[in-house]
Specification:
By secondary structure, this protein is an alpha/beta fold. It has helices at 2-23, 66-74, 82-88, 104-108, 122-132, 207-210, 214-227, 255-266, 288-300; strands spanning 28-34, 46-51, 57-60, 90-94, 116-120, 153-157, 163-165, 172-179, 185-193, 196-201, 231-237, 278-282, 307-309, 317-319. A 7-stranded mixed beta sheet has the order 6-5-4-3-2-1-14. A 7-stranded mixed beta sheet has the order 7-8-9-10-11-12-13, with helices on one face. Helix 7 (214-227) packs across helix 8 (255-266). The protein is globular and about 55 Å long.
């Protein structure tokens, strides 16, 4: 009798183990610390991300830190006090480009922070080193640049095409260069844990406007992950409504350009696999009437039937 039951027990054990393995790392917890583009210094681009069940986060950009953590505590997305959360739970910063609305929170809160890495393309880290963490502008809390170097932060350059572990977390990252109003550059970060991925794009213009192939190259790289069901979410900016002239986009997207680029991505994927991806809309710029128009245009022009998410500062997102 036992001999007949044993194979079934083994099968069920293997099946349960496979289900557990598929579930482990298949979800991400995201806490938006800041979601806007523009002039609200308390709510600028910054997103904490970690595999579900972990409290070891990295920040995708760092425009707002402390005010966003406070808001997350109010929403019960985080527990504790803001200083300890920044010091102990944020394990590093991925900075997409050198504009203040993507790194001001990192700079302002640096005196109270603990030692950790700042990750970015070499060109982005050079801006931090030469323009921000200097003794004329603030203080040099990093390990390079003007002396004395306080060496709280370590610059970690990301080379395109390589995948790097994110220190003190269970995640890895791969960087892709973007065009953000030529000749300025931005970055997309492909985060993974086990076989699950999230793609975060910093500010970016459309290829047709930028006269670039940066997004086309990125779409070629991530399309296989969508087909395999491994890419869970894409953060992509929409800064202006459709009425904004191309010459005044300054390296940003409109709803029309957003859907144009995602249409190119869909053409590289199989069937309706792109509908399984959550599209987190970032960097909507004020004023309020313009922000509302952007949302209306995105919703009414969503002929691809994408899963659009409009994140709220401090409110936890779970991406499965």
């Amino acid at each position: 009798m036992f001999k007949r039951i044993l194979p079934a027990i083994i099968f069920l054990s293997i099946y349960a183990s496979n289900l557990w393995a598929q579930g482990t790392g298949s979800s991400f917890t995201i806490i938006p610390l800041g979601v806007k583009g523009g002039d609200d210094e308390s709510n600028l681009s910054s997103y904490m991300i970690t595999p579900k069940g972990s409290d070891k986060y990295v920040c995708l950009d760092a425009g707002t830190i402390n005010a966003g953590i406070q808001k997350a505590i109010d929403f019960k997305s985080l527990k504790g006090n803001s200083e300890e959360i920044q010091r102990k739970q944020i394990k590093g910063y991925l900075i997409s480009h050198g504009h203040l609305d993507h790194l001001a929170g990192l700079i302002i809160n640096s005196p109270a922070d603990t030692s950790k890495n700042i990750y970015g393309l070499p060109s982005v880290l050079n801006i931090l080193r030469d323009k921000y963490f200097t003794w004329d502008a603030w203080a040099n809390f990093a390990n390079e640049g003007e002396k004395p170097q306080l060496k709280k932060y370590t610059y970690f350059p990301l080379i395109e095409g390589n995948t790097y572990p994110l220190a003190d977390t269970e995640m890895k990252v791969r960087a892709f260069e973007l065009s953000h109003g030529k000749p300025y550059k931005s970055t997309a970060f492909l985060i993974n844990h086990n076989d699950s991925y999230v793609l975060y794009l910093g500010d970016t213009g459309a290829d047709e406007v930028e006269k670039s192939d940066k997004l086309a190259s990125l779409w070629q790289n991530i399309a296989p992950l969508i087909n395999a069901g491994q890419l869970k979410a894409i953060f992509l900016e929409v800064s202006f409504p459709n009425e904004q002239p191309d010459k005044q986009l300054f390296g940003h997207l409109t709803p029309k350009l957003f859907f144009s680029e995602i249409g190119k991505l869909k053409s590289l994927t199989d069937g309706d696999t792109i509908k399984k991806v959550a599209f987190i809309v970032t960097h909507i710029k004020p004023p309020q009437h313009s922000a509302e128009k952007i949302k209306r245009q995105l919703l009414t022009e969503n002929t691809l039937d994408l899963n659009l998410i409009f994140p709220k500062q401090g409110k936890l997102l779970t991406i499965n």
